[in-house]
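Duplicate of #3305? Posting structure anyway:
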């Protein structure tokens, strides 16, 4: 039994796909993401936005977070979808823990 709207499942998949694509991008390209505008899309007739956050780490790496907001259909508010990882100058990646995403809700 589905416990959340179909549009939210679709939206989460879109955000996860953006994260997967970004994991394959070179470190130098990811450094430039901070200046990217927010992407506005429609998911099953519901407005949504997807933004990419690139935060520098003291180690020289980057924390990359894909943050999406999907408007609720029948009441005020938004659902949040997140994906993220760490990327280092040697092109290696590391996952973020679930707790680390709390800062981006």
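Output from current build:
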């Amino acid at each position: 039994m589905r416990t959340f709207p179909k549009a939210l499942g679709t939206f989460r998949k879109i955000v996860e796909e953006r994260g997967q694509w970004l994991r394959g991008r070179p470190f130098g390209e990811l450094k430039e993401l901070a200046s990217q505008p927010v992407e506005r899309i429609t998911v099953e007739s519901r407005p949504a936005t997807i933004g990419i956050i690139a935060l520098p780490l003291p180690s020289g790496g980057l924390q990359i977070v894909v943050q999406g907001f999907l408007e609720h259909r029948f009441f005020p508010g938004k659902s949040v979808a997140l994906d993220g990882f760490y990327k280092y100058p040697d092109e290696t990646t590391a996952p973020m823990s679930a707790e680390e995403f709390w800062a981006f809700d």
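Confirmed duplicate; merging threads. The longest helix spans residues 6-23. The mean pLDDT is 90.
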